Amino acid sequence: MKTIRVVIADDERPARLFLKALLESFPAVEIVGEAENGTEAVDLITETKPDLALLDLQMPEATGLEVVKMLRENQMPLVAFVTAYDEYAVQAFEVNAVDYLLKPVERTRLAETLQRAAVRLEREDLRDDETERLQNAVKVYDEIAKPAFIERIPVKNREEILLVPLREVASIVADGELLHITTVNNKRYLINFRLKDLEARIEPNKFIRLSRGALANLEMIAKISPMIGGTYQVLLKNGQQLGVSRLQSKLLREKFLKM
Question: What are the tens digits of pLDDT across the range 77-86?
Fold first, then answer.
């Protein structure tokens, strides 16, 4: 079997190391790079042009599905999504014959993925079909995976639990698995939750991701200032200043700063 050049993208280091160790047990596999978030995954795939990308479905800055959306067709490798069980993802992937691996990944199942990739790499006529199936799976997932969006965030304040309305939240900034929540009146709360999990519960048109570790309420943005290198800095109505990552600056520019 021809050597398959593989990129791994997963924000959880133990999961990434486990998958890397499994891949290294296959002699016909070359790992050409690792990414720990969606931004790095896009850059890495564009730069290394792998045969196969193993993308975690939920990653900071850009999910595995969003990585696929951001890649041009001529940059698209074969893709297998790696995820904890997600009924909507499984449904979307199975309907469109898109490969996926459930965590914890089993070696025999990974071997099947590599074998499928090898067959597709040998037949150029299958590549266009693969890309079309992948794009269809993304559309199906977007249509069926409609989470119950929250309107308030429960936070602990001494012995009480407060329900902070999302409309009063100016920013949410991650520090590991702790989230710093700052309101428009500069009240600050701390909760133990992962940013990507909270982001999935917030209606997309309410908050915008500024970087791997920060979300901002769109209604609270007072000013956006260009910075050196093509990035931006955001000033919120409560006086907070937050930097915008390179990828998110590009998305911000395309979505909000063009007429």
Answer: 999 999 887 7
